[in-house]
Design brief:
The complex is a heterodimer of chains A (320) and B (252).
Chain A (H helix, E strand, L loop, with lengths): L1 H19 L7 H7 L4 H35 L11 H15 L5 H25 L7 H23 L3 H8 L15 H12 L1 H8 L2 H6 L4 H22 L6 H13 L3 H25 L8 H18 L7
Chain B lengths: L1 E10 L2 E11 L3 E6 L6 H8 L7 E6 L2 E2 L5 H7 E4 L11 H7 L2 H4 L5 H13 L15 H14 L4 E5 L7 H18 L2 E5 L3 H7 L2 E6 L2 E7 H4 L2 H8 L4 E5 L2 E5 L3
Parallel strand pairs in B: 3-8, 3-9, 6-7, 7-8
Antiparallel strand pairs in B: 1-2, 1-4, 4-5, 9-10, 11-12
The chains are: A mainly alpha (320), B alpha/beta (252).
Chain lengths: 320, 252
């Protein structure tokens, strides 16, 4: 409990740092001197605070989505970007952007989430047909499926001159976050709360279908709830800030190594860890080439792949 | 009482369980024996609603397993299959606590905690309670799974080869525990067993299966006889009486 509070404190510190990092001079003296109508205050309220909130929400919910995915698929190496979920969400968003450009963002996000759900269901369907359920084969199948869906999406985008938009969705970046353009991410928080409420059910599902049935739970229903959470989070994050790779993989695995997989205990850790990691990567991306920015998906890709290799190469005791 | 009537399961063209009708009495230990591929595990899976049957009905304590609410069944009957692959990293205590899920839905009461501690102690797991399952040996893990089923505290306890991975001492301890559960707590224990001597020593009732059908059944004393066993396993089996127990010898 004390270490959890420590982690929470660490993440809060990162959040505060995140608010004060940037090209515009926003600092406590400049805020005090300028008062409520100053440019510093304006930047703070319109850009910096929304960006920080967006980071926390996206980080926490993506990490939770990875955790839920790993429990329901019963595989350590799955997360929305290794199961075709993210790619399906992008396809859905592209389709709705083409067919109904006038729809509000919330409705577009809904369509994207439905596509994400469909793509994930397809992934599970394929898994059932693949006889070898090797630990690493599962994410490989997902990455291949994602590749196919991604190629289809790219083809449509290319033919309709939407390649630039597609590139932006696939590359998570928080530099465009402004007040009024990130609020959808609160849906992610709702999903986190849902995951916490249903935590015991997901842990039971993580024990397998037979155990779940023995304990009187409907396995299919728990699976479905999990997939809805994962799809919603993937769609919301994709539509708001673009996809963030590896996050859903790294954070839950590190937490699992530390305190195991009882979700009642891990959900707070994973949420705080996810937020902290995204904050740290975003701050790094803003400072490395100051005053220019490196998109978070790039930073996360580098940090995440290194950590992923570490997780792969250590003897996977809990993975088999 | 567990009643199965005309229970059938096909895998493609192969009929694994072929019209099995059985009445297993309430109370006591019933062992299901038989050669590999006889359909014992499949039958147990269908009785415990883990597997859908192609034909037939099963009632457990009067509840039809295909129509009764699953959570109600979970308070009446517990099932542990063999070969449990657990990818989730849980501690022994976490696992055993989930045995109380059908009652508490995750909010453990004092009563639940009592059941959990008792089950952990019964299976000699106190020293391992805080350890993760993936850090345990196969036998220790098997005991943890049985502890979870015990914490579930159901009238009917179904175990598929519970002696898997257990050394002699723990195998004996496990059977004693089942006997205690049946005699002192009035539970109905149904086991799939491969070791016919354990079946002989501890069972009240034995059901023998072969080629998906029940080939013989009856009280243990009637079943552990050379002609019955030799027919079931299609090999020469001698039965000796040692200290009042019937022991089969079939090693050469």
């Amino acid at each position: 409990m004390r270490t959890l509070l420590l982690a929470l404190f660490g993440t809060l510190v990162l959040a505060v740092v995140s608010v004060f990092v940037g090209v515009s001079d926003v600092s406590i003296p400049s805020l005090l001197v300028g008062g409520v109508d100053s440019r510093a205050m304006e930047v703070l309220l319109i850009s910096r605070i929304p960006r920080t909130i967006a980071l926390v929400l996206a980080g926490a919910s993506m990490a939770i989505a990875g955790l839920v995915m790993q429990m329901v698929v019963r595989n350590r190496f799955v997360e929305p970007s290794t199961t075709g979920t993210t790619e399906s969400a992008a396809l859905g968003f592209l389709v709705v952007t083409l067919l109904a450009p006038g729809w509000p963002l919330m409705a577009k996000m809904g369509v994207s989430a439905v596509f994400a759900l469909g793509g994930t269901a397809l992934f599970l369907r394929i898994l059932r047909a693949v006889p070898l359920r090797d630990v690493l084969l599962v994410p490989l199948v997902g990455i291949m499926l994602g590749g196919i869906i991604g190629a289809l999406t790219a083809f449509i985008a290319y033919r309709t001159n939407l390649m630039a938009s597609l590139l932006a969705w696939n590359m998570g970046d928080f530099s465009g976050v402004l007040r009024g353009r990130y609020e959808l991410l609160w849906v992610g928080l709702v999903c986190c709360v849902m995951a916490y409420i249903a935590a015991d059910r997901f842990t039971v599902a993580g024990m397998g279908k037979d155990f779940t049935t023995n304990l009187g739970l409907n396995y299919q229903r728990v699976m479905m709830l999990g997939l809805v959470i994962v799809s919603l989070v993937s769609a919301v994050v994709l539509v708001s800030v673009g996809s963030i790779p590896f996050l859903g993989l790294i954070v839950p695995n590190l937490v699992s190594l530390m305190i195991g997989d009882n979700m009642r205990r891990t959900v707070p850790w994973v949420a705080i860890g996810g937020a902290g990691m995204v904050l740290a990567c975003d701050i790094a991306g803003r400072l490395i080439r100051f005053p220019y920015e490196i998109p978070i998906s790039v930073v996360m890709g580098v940090v995440g792949s290194a950590m992923f290799l570490y997780l792969l190469l250590r003897t996977p005791r809990g993975a088999t | 009482m567990i009643v199965t009537s005309n229970v059938t399961k096909n895998y493609g063209a192969a009929c694994v369980v072929d019209g099995v009708s059985l009445e297993l009495p309430a109370g006591g230990i019933t062992s299901i024996i038989g050669p590999n591929g006889a359909g014992k595990s499949t039958l147990l899976s269908m009785v415990s609603r883990l597997m859908a049957m192609d034909k037939g009905t099963v009632t457990v304590g009067g509840l039809d397993v295909t129509t009764a609410p699953s959570d109600e069944l979970a308070r009446r009957m517990s099932i542990l299959r063999q070969d449990n692959h657990m990818t989730a990293r849980l501690t022994v205590r976490d696992l055993v606590s989930f045995g109380r899920y059908p009652y508490s839905k995750g909010r453990l009461t004092v009563d639940d905690k009592g059941h959990i501690e008792k089950a952990i102690t019964y299976l000699d797991l106190d020293a391992l309670a805080h350890r993760f399952l993936d850090e345990l040996s196969g036998g220790q893990r098997q005991r943890a799974f049985v502890a979870m089923v015990l914490a579930q505290d159901t009238d009917y306890v179904l175990l598929d080869e519970p002696l898997n991975n257990l050394d002699m001492k723990h195998a004996m301890g496990m059977m004693k525990l089942m006997q205690q559960a049946a005699n002192d707590l009035g539970k109905t224990v149904v086991l799939v067993l491969h070791d016919i001597n354990f079946a002989s020593w501890y069972s009240d009732h034995i059901v023998a299966m072969k080629h998906g059908k029940v080939s013989a059944q009856g009280p243990a004393a009637e079943m552990i006889r050379p002609e019955v066993l030799s027919d079931i396993y299609e090999m020469d089996i001698k039965v000796h009486e040692i200290g009042g127990q019937r022991i089969s010898v079939y090693y050469g």
